Amino acid sequence: MLQREAMLQHLRRHSPVVAPSMLKCDFGDLRSEVRKIDAAQLPLYHLDVMDGHFVPNLSYGPMVIERLRALTSTPFDAHLMISDPGRYLDEYVRAGCEAITFHLEAVPDPTELLRAIRSQDVVSGLAINPDTPIEAAEPFLNDCDLLLVMSVNPGFGGQKFMPEVLPKVQRASQIAGDRLIISVDGGIAAGTIGPCAAAGAGLFVAGSSVFDFDDYRQAADTMLAEIHGGTDTAAQKEASECRP
Q1: What CATH homologous superfamily does 4-242 map to?
Q2: Is residue 229 pLDDT above 90, yes or no?
Q3: Contact (Cβ atoms closer than 8 angstroms) between residue 124 and residue 98
Q4: How many angstroms separate the CA atoms of 221 and 213, rounded?
Q5: Given phi > 0 = left and psi -120 to 50 = alpha, else beta, which region is 220?
Q6: How far is CA 237 from CA 45, 151, 186, 195, in A?
Q7: What ranges do the domains of the chain cover?
Q8: Which conformational region is residue 177 in: left (phi greater than 0), alpha (psi within -120 to 50 degrees), or beta?
Q9: Is residue 233 predicted with pLDDT exceeding 90?
Q10: Per-residue pLDDT tens for 133-184?
Q11: Lowest-confidence segment of 95-99, 100-104, 158-162, 213-217 by average pLDDT
Q12: What are phi and psi of 45, to 5 degrees?
C-alpha cells in the first residue's frame, strides 16, 4: 500500500490516468475483473461507495474493499458518496485505500476531515456535484490533494456527460496549478475525455467506457488517444460554448 507522497507521485507519473469505476464491474466475478484490470495496467481503481442516503443507491463498503485489496496491489481511491464520511474514515484506511474522496455537500466545512485523511498518510480528496459552484470549494483546495468534479449527478452509472461543469475544472486548474490533481467522474468516454483534459483534468473515472469492452487496455487507449491527439469532437465544441 502506497503512502501519501508515493501515491501522489504514482498518479502524476501515470497521468493522464483512466481509473475504472468499479460500480460498473461484474460483481459476480470480481477476481476475473481484477485480473483484467491489472493485465491492462490501469493505474487506479475508483471505488464507488454509496449509502442509500446521500445518494439514492447502495453499493458496497469497507468489507468488500478489504477483500478486493487482497487481490491486487494497484492503488485504490475510495469515493465516499455517503452522509457521514468522517465516521467511517478509519475503516477505509484499514481496508487499504490510498486515497479517500468525500463530498463537500456532505461536509460543508471539510477542513478537519481533509486534514485527518492526510494525517493518516492518505491522499485527501474533495468531490463536488454538478450544481455546486467551484467557489464553494476554493477555500479548501489547499487542504486537498485531489479535487473530483462530478460531471453527472452521483448515484448511478451510465449517465450523460454534463459539459457545463468544465469551467469549474478550468478554474480549479488556474487556482491550484499542478499541485492539485483534478479528476472528472461521469460520462467519460471517447468524445468527452478530450474536453476534460483540455480544461485541466488529469484523472478520468470511466465506467461503461471500460467495462463494456472485452479489452480494457484497448478501451483506455482509445480514450487516451483523444487526449494525446487533441481530437476535435462535437463534445469539445459544445464544451467550449459553455466556458465563460
Answers
A1: Aldolase class I (3.20.20.70)
A2: no
A3: no
A4: 12
A5: alpha
A6: 30, 17, 18, 9
A7: 4-242
A8: left
A9: no
A10: 999 999 999 999 999 999 999 876 667 999 999 999 999 999 998 999 999 9
A11: 158-162
A12: -95, 130
Burial per residue of 135-164, b for 16 or more beta-carbon CB atoms within 10 angstroms, e otherwise: eebeebbebbbbbbbbbbebbeeebebbbe
Could you give the residue numbers annotated as active site?
48, 185
SS3 sequence of the chain: CCCHHHHHHHHHHHCCEEEEEHHHCCHHHHHHHHHHHHHCCCCCEEEEEEECCCCCCECCCHHHHHHHHCCCCCCEEEEEECCCHHHHHHHHHHHCCCEEEEECCCCCCCHHHHHHHHHCCCEEEEEECCCCCHHHHHHHHHHCCEEEEECCCCCCCCCCCCHHHHHHHHHHHHHHHHHCEEEEECCCCCCCHHHHHHHCCCEEEECHHHHCCCCHHHHHHHHHHHHHHCCCCHHHHHHHHHCC
Residue with cell 467557489: 135
The Cα–Cα gap between 66 and 237 comes to: 42
The answer to whether the beta carbons of residues 110 and 145 sit under 8 Å apart is no
